[in-house]
Design goal:
- There is one protein chain.
- The protein is an alpha+beta fold and 136 residues long.
- Helices cover 49% and strands 18% of the residues.
- It is built from 5 helices and 6 strands, in the order H-H-E-H-E-H-E-E-E-E-H.
- The protein has helices at residues 3-21, 27-41, 59-65, 70-84, 122-132; strands at 45-46, 67-68, 89-93, 96-102, 108-112, 118-120.
- It has a 4-stranded antiparallel β-sheet with strand order 3-4-5-6. A two-stranded parallel ribbon has the order 1-2.
- Strand 5 (108-112) and strand 6 form a beta hairpin.
- It starts with a helix and ends with a helix.
């Protein structure tokens, strides 16, 4: 595997997202730009049909196939966001993985990369937990 070639692909995704942003780095605008590049233009998506396929866990395979699980899609998204200037943190939920951005006022944005970079609320997360534990 040529790790440099895969890193270059991540840099190229970030450069495209950054070109959509221009000089203003507002978190929601950055998320929209990254989402356009990764999900609309490139076609990255969560692999719902073959969720447990081992290839979903290898970053090079995810970059090649544009299919992954929440955590591998999130790793790529974090690296693209970092190069755009947007700091993100991973958030583990039972059975899922999200990303979070905090601004200087402690406001947060939660991003579900498996759902195409959709911004979710705490209420959405609670609903998901309620669904997971409804039968328990």
């Amino acid at each position: 595997m040529d790790a440099g070639a895969y890193a270059a692909r991540v840099y190229a995704l970030a450069a495209r997202a950054k070109s959509l942003l221009g000089s203003v780095l507002e978190p929601r605008a950055a998320i929209r730009a990254i989402n356009i590049v990764m999900f609309e233009e490139e076609g990255f998506r969560g692999n719902r049909d073959e969720y447990y396929d081992p290839r979903n866990s290898f970053l090079n395979e995810v970059l090649d196939r544009k299919l992954g699980i929440p955590i591998t899609l999130s790793v790529i998204y974090i690296e693209v966001a970092k190069r755009v200037g947007l700091a993100l943190l991973g958030v583990g939920m039972p059975g899922h993985f999200l990303l979070k951005h905090y601004d200087e006022y402690a406001n947060e944005l939660l991003i579900d990369v498996f759902e195409g970079g959709r911004i979710v609320t705490s209420a959405n997360c609670q609903q998901r937990l309620d669904e997971i534990y409804a039968d328990k």
